[in-house]
Amino acid sequence: MITVSFKPEGGAGEVEAGSTILEAAHQLGVTITAPCGGKGRCGRCRVICERGCAEPTGAEHDLLTGEELRNGVRLACEAVLLADAQVIVPSNSRTVNGQILSEDAGDELTLAPNVVSRLIQLPEPTLADQRSDFERIADTLEIPTADLRIHRDALAQVTPILRQNDFCISVVMLGNVIVDVRPPMSEHPCCLGAAVDIGTTTVVAYLVNVSTGERIATASALNQQARYGHDLISRIEHVQSSTGGLEEMRSIVVNLINRLLAEAAEKAAVRRRDIYEVAVVGNTCMHHLFLGLDPRHLAQAPYVPVTRGPMDVSAADAGLAINPAGGVYSLPVIAGFVGADTVGVLLSSRITERDHPTLIVDIGTNGEVMLWSGERLLVTSCAAGPAFEGGQIRHGVRAAEGAIERVWLRNGSIGFATIGGAHPNGICGSGIFDIVATLLDGGVADITGRIADKEASEDLPVQIATRLRGEGSEREFVVAERDDGSGEITFTQQDLREVQLAKGAVRAAVELLCTEAGIECEEIEEVLLAGAFGNYIDRRSARRIGLLPDIPLGRIRGIGNAAGAGALAALVSVDERRYAAELASRAEHVELMANPGFQLVYADSMIFPSSI
User: Fold this and answer.
1) Which residue has the higher pLDDT, 18 or 511?
2) Could you tell me if 373 and 360 are in contact, meaning their C-beta atoms sit under 8 angstroms apart?
């Protein structure tokens, strides 16, 4: 065993010699960002090892410069620890909580919760009326005893509560099951529920008083499954290649949800025991991992899920630390890469109730595109990759303090703003959109995505031209200087290519859905942006780079965390659950890779508009 310590956030302990730095970090609770899942491909898990490491591997020689290696920079997933070591984790390699969208976008709903509390007065037993206590409850509720069930723990409390309160009792029902009984003047009278949005990157939990529909607390955090890769395929590969990998991935997300529920309950000064039901949404892979279902066939054609219908499981089976008799409801999924989160978006947006063609784009590592033509509801998914979230971008970071979130061109000069007004430490998703739009507006990049070479840059304003340097694939644009003296924050030719690939995938999905629906993109009356990107990206930048159709900006708007809003709707109304199931059945899934014209449309979609 050897001792390893991590700076600056701490974390130290013993690990086996021969472990990689990334493995040691996982064991000691230190999170290092590793977008490729620790496979030595992305080069993003840079750390500084002051001592104790083996010689650099071939992958490190390929992905790190000679100067970096001389200065002790190593890849955490490759560097093997042989002796006691001290590791510095730079800010760009630390996974930190950033701007996580946790506001819902739901409208007022008619409450019809699956969890209800009923205060009932029972007739006292007599020699002439020797019905059991349970029969008296069933008869008073006007539910046949054959249809009414009761949890054993609740049944054990019925007799003392009835006789201590003159046969008056409060019963909490989950569907047709009595899950709890209380004295009529209980000090904990409310019935709580929670809606959880399990995202690939973030997990958000909303705590709700289901009797009133009031959201009383929210908690959110990064999905710690990201230690095995930022994309879904990397996580599925971990399940396939590791003994116990499925249970490990399930435990990660279940433990995180339990932590968020505890945090939300503490904020609201309520008991977790009073949470009786949790409604869950997530993409199909997250849905499967949470429920402990094997996701491996989602990554293999024909991409078949284990199940598509809504799921009702007990809280105990799901592993959630709420009321022991509580339940968990998962919205249905549509296809292998179109999940319950998409159903949540369809539900909360009321897209099929609109009288005009409407497009919804939920941008992430796996982008979902939904089109209502006025008659048909079409859905698809596309592998946008991590570029929009800062992955595979040289100086890309998550949307946390210090990330460049806005970039603009004014009077021939570049300006930028960071989250929290802090010193710049990288570029997050919204900043990436702005940079690409700015490069196009300023003539720094052409419609093919090529950054101006030395000769072409002579025609640019001097304030712009002096920011360009390098040759070929190493050509780069200096966005900002780091205040700590560690160099510049740049946007490279390769970064621009990554954005092209991502935006091309999304735009190709839009084009093919319109073709399938028999409409032109320009006929779309409204574009709705779901999720964090819908709130934070500049609509003009999204349109300028060609991600969205060329329609007036006033017809493009964000709808917040619509997936989470769908989970909230399902939590407080069984009618909404039925509606969600109808939408999932009605939605026509379009498999892009099965379309013979996809590659051609994809190639065309990577071209940037000449202007807007």
Assistant:
1) 511
2) no
| DSSP type of residue 353 | G
What is the amino acid identity at position 294? D
Distance CA(191)–CA(535), nearest Å, equals 32
Half-sphere exposure at residue 594, Cβ-oriented, CA atoms within 13 angstroms: 10
Q: Which residues contact 176 (CB under 8 A, 6 or more apart)?
A: 143, 147, 148, 149
Phi and psi torsions of 574, nearest 5° = -70, -25
The helix-helix angle for 284-291 and 232-241 (nearest 10°) equals 30
What is the predicted pLDDT for the residue at 95? 53
Q: Quote the CA–CA distance of 293 and 317 in Å, as a whole number.
A: 13
Closest-CA residue to 230 (of 42, 380, 401, 22): 42
Edge-to-edge strand ranges of the sheet holding 413-418: 413-418, 403-410, 426-427
Extract the tokens encoding 506.
């999304």
Coil/strand/helix, residue 482 = coil
pLDDT classification of 612: cutoffs 50, 70, 90: low
**pLDDT of 357 higher than 90:** yes
Report pLDDT for 363.
Answer: 83
Tokens of 562: 């619509």
Residue 391 pLDDT:
75
Query: Which pLDDT tens digit goes with each residue over 268-286?
Result: 999 999 999 999 999 999 9
Among residues 333, 399, 370, 377, which one has the least CA distance to residue 506?
370
Whether 138 shows a pLDDT value over 70: the answer reads yes
Average pLDDT over residues 101-122: 75
Domain 115-182, CATH: 3.10.20.880
Q: Looking at residue 312, what is its pLDDT?
A: 96
Could you tell me which residues are beta bridge partners of residue 88? 7, 48
Q: What is the tally of helices (H) and strands (E) in the chain? A: 19, 27
- What is the architecture of the domain spanning 2-93? Roll (3.10)
DSSP 533: H
d(CA 74, CA 63): 10
Q: How confident is the prediction for the chain on average, in pLDDT?
A: 89
Alpha helix segments (H runs only) across 212-357: 232-241, 245-268, 284-291, 315-318, 340-349
Q: Where in the chain is the domain with CATH 3.10.20.30?
A: 2-93
d(CA 241, CA 449): 38
Both tokens assigned to 396: 């890309």
At the second CATH level, the architecture of 192-330 is 2-Layer Sandwich (3.30)
Letter for the amino acid at 93?
S
